[in-house]
Amino acid sequence: MPATIPLPDANPLPADKDNRSRLIDAALEVLLRDGILGFSQSKVARQAGLRQSHLTYYFPTRNDLLTVVVEHGCQLVINAQGCAGSAAESSLESFRQQMCDKVCDSRIARLMVAVTVAAETDPKLKSWLSDFDRRMLNNKREAFLQYGITCSHDELALFHSTIAGIALCNLNSCTPEDHAEARHRFLLAFDRLILGSHPIQRSE
């Protein structure tokens, strides 16, 4: 089974957390457990142990909450891709395996499917999703640069789209063999990107 990203545990939520953080954690729990069709403000408020008025104070609409939740969940992937520091702290092979783990974690794909479905009826959310996709692409560019690897925009965009498709297919997987195939496809796409890249010549 693929490694998983540590996401918040189920209730009870810590009482000392500020209300906004409690609501975000609760919303993430509800979204991952019940999907977009079961995602409601009232359910999130109950999960957080707060009144719904607390929720609407911070997040007036369901989609306002949804965008923050997806940012929160996917930020874990961004952090895991090695861009937190100014230089890579692990080997390229370690980075390759870590990215594979995150891409093959079905919970992140579930978050992105949820926001994509919701965006069909909300132009504001669709605009946010487009911007988020560009930021994720730029994040990958910065991550590879830390390993001295530069790729053309088209090469990187193709890789980005390919692994999004792999993550989506993996979301519908139901056997260990399916998950193994998803990892194999990701590693193949990663290796092909590296082969087509241009290593940066660093001065001594």
Q: What does this 3D model show about the protein?
A:
- The protein is mostly helical and 204 residues long.
- Helix content is 68%, strand content 2%.
- The protein contains nine helices and two strands, in the order αααααααβααβ.
- It has helices at 19-34, 41-48, 52-58, 62-80, 92-103, 106-119, 123-145, 153-171, 176-195; strands at residues 149-150, 198-199.
- It has a two-stranded antiparallel sheet with strand order 1-2.
- α4 (62-80) runs parallel beside α7 (123-145) and α6 (106-119) packs across α8.
- The radius of gyration is 18 Å and the shape is elongated.
- Residues 1-16 and 81-87 have low confidence and may be disordered.
Strand order of the largest sheet: 1-2
Structural class: mainly alpha
DSSP strand (E) fraction?
under 5%
Order of helices and strands: HHHHHHHEHHE
**Low-confidence segments, ≥5 residues, pLDDT <50?**
1-16, 81-87
Q: What is the overall pLDDT average? A: 82
Helix proportion of residues, in percent?
55-70%
The description of the largest β-sheet is: 2 strands, antiparallel
**Count of alpha and pi helical runs:** 9
C-alpha geometry: elongated
The count of strands amounts to 2
N- to C-terminal distance: 42 Å
Give the radius of gyration.
Answer: 18 Å
Q: What is the gist of this entry?
A:
With 204 residues, the chain is an all-alpha fold. It contains nine helices and two strands, in the order αααααααβααβ.
Q: Main traits of this protein?
A:
204 residues; mainly alpha; two-stranded antiparallel sheet; 2 strands; elongated; disordered N terminus
